[in-house]
């Protein structure tokens, strides 16, 4: 996830007084303009593929300050990102099916010095490993010992219109393509994702008021990292791999999209639409309902305020403001009743679907990933708590943030469980076992099952 991970694109007429063309056309024009600028600049364009369509790349940089090459990897006050976070990101990327996990500037960050500084030392000690280098060494040892991680299990597809332009960047969210005025449907994407991965969308965060740590980069979720984001122009061959498809944001529902969704429903898929999307579909909704299972969620017309001010969704400027102004702005980030109602409906929906489709039950506040393997299941367990660091502060450890996680298999029988990072067997009682995970730690458990 990154979070995580993961998004893009809808339609709605702009204010008729100042715009005579549809919002979709403006988003399309903006997209094409940006694309042409990228091409003229000579920059490469990387389009990630879904998990079963070859490979996906995942990059994570450490954003160290310029001029700190020699000592940038010593976890002191001058370094921005700690090695624990990077290691967790590597494991999450690997288990998610990434073909490449590439730390930025790694040839410098993995070491604490240069060879010429240690000529008197033995060859294997001339360039000592940095804290990040040691994490990378341990990570590579695990990946080399276990080359087969199975297939990421993501039964839920989040379907966005190909031109909705959703933006998760906290300073401009939820402006489509970073510049357009957002609609309620754009806000609902942020609310939906923040419900799946609490605090990851920065909805309660104001720069200059709140201290930004790294605890929003990877977050725990009661539903697991079991969601993929697809666009409305995805093919039927891709969409049919997901038992559940949930439409988010504004959709134009072009004929080709309706045809693909109709085939998806006829093949046994389940579709979830917001009430606003159902209204947008009009008579097309009956076509979809006749094809298969269609359910509605979210806000009904009578639950939507008559007047909504999108400005309150923006991250407000804070430079030079007095304490009273900052306090008022902080209060403004509190969700309004209609937003809370939407999140409550999402919790009810995803809780119900998770119980039905996830193969395991995981108790404990933990981030988890599920992969299907030849002999059973593989679980990645990530404790994102207890290791924190501000921009210019030392790492703070909180041993009390260790997690005791209970995992039970819903179907079949557990034959054995083995933890990969520490290479140890895990005791099993019936179909249940427990794992203790220290702050900032990752554990990967392979579950062999018997049907």
Distance between the termini: 31 Å
Ranges with pLDDT <50 over ≥5 residues? 1-80
Identify the CATH class of the domain at 154-305.
Alpha Beta
Strand order of the largest sheet: 3-10-11-18-15-16
Question: What is the fold-level CATH name, i.e. the topology of the domain at 154-305?
Answer: Rossmann fold
Helical amount: 25-40%
Structural class: alpha/beta
**Beta-strand content estimate:** 15-25%
Globally, the shape reads: globular
Count of beta strands: 18
Mean pLDDT: 80
Largest sheet: 6 strands, antiparallel
CATH architecture descriptor of the domain at 154-305: 3-Layer(aba) Sandwich
SSE order: HEHEHHEEHEHEHEHHEHHEEEEEEEEEE
Q: How many helix segments? A: 11
Question: What would you say this structure looks like, in words?
Answer:
This protein has 451 residues and is of the alpha/beta class. Among the domains are: 154-305, Rossmann fold (3-Layer(aba) Sandwich); 360-450, Sandwich (Immunoglobulin-like), CATH 2.60.40. 28% of the residues lie in helices and 20% in strands. The chain has eleven helices and 18 strands. The strands form five sheets. Strands 3-10-11-18-15-16 form a six-stranded antiparallel β-sheet. Strand 4 (156-160), helix 5 (184-196) and strand 5 form a beta-alpha-beta unit. The longest helix is centred in the C-terminal third of the chain and has 21 residues, at 337-357. It is globular.
């Amino acid at each position: 996830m990154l979070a995580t991970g993961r998004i893009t694109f809808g339609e709605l007429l702009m204010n008729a007084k100042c715009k005579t063309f549809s919002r979709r056309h403006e988003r399309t024009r903006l997209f094409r303009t940006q694309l042409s600028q990228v091409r003229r600049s000579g920059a490469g364009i990387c389009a990630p593929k879904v998990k079963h369509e070859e490979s996906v790349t995942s990059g994570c940089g450490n954003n160290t300050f310029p001029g700190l090459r020699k000592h940038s990897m010593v976890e002191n006050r001058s370094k921005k990102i700690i090695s624990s976070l990077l290691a967790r990101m590597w494991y999450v990327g690997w288990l998610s099916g990434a073909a490449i996990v590439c730390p930025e500037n790694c040839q410098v960050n993995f070491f604490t010095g240069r060879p010429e500084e240690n000529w008197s030392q033995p060859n294997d000690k001339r360039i000592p490993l940095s804290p990040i280098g040691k994490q990378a060494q341990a990570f590579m040892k695990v990946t080399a010992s276990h080359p087969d991680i199975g297939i990421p299990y993501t039964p839920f597809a989040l379907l966005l219109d190909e031109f909705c332009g959703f933006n998760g960047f906290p300073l401009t969210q939820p402006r489509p393509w970073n510049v357009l005025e957002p609609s309620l449907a754009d806000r609902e994407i942020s609310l939906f994702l923040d419900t799946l991965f609490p605090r990851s969308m920065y909805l309660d965060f104001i720069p200059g008021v709140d201290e930004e740590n790294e605890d929003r980069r990877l977050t725990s979720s009661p539903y697991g990292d079991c969601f993929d984001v697809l666009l409305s122009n995805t093919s039927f061959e891709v969409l049919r791999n997901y038992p559940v498809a949930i439409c988010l944001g504004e959709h134009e529902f072009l004929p080709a999209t309706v045809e693909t969704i109709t085939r998806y429903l006829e093949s046994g898929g389940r579709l979830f639409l917001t009430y606003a999307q159902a209204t947008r579909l009009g008579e097309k909704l009956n076509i979809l309902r006749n094809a298969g299972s269609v359910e509605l969620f979210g806000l009904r017309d009578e639950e939507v305020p008559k007047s909504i001010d999108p400005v309150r969704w923006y991250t407000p400027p804070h430079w030079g403001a007095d304490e009273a102004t900052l306090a008022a702005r902080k209060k403004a980030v509190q969700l309004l009743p209609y937003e809370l109602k939407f999140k409550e409906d999402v919790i009810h929906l995803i809780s119900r679907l998770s119980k039905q489709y996830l193969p395991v039950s995981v108790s404990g506040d933990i981030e988890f990933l599920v992969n299907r393997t030849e002999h059973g299941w593989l679980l990645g367990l990530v404790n994102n708590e207890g290791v924190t660091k501000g921009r210019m502060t030392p790492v703070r450890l909180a041993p009390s943030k260790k997690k005791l996680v209970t995992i039970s298999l819903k179907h079949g029988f557990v034959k054995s469980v083995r933890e990969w990072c520490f290479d140890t067997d895990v005791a099993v009682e019936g179909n249940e076992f427990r794992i203790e995970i220290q702050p900032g730690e990752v554990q990967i458990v392979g579950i062999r099952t018997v049907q």
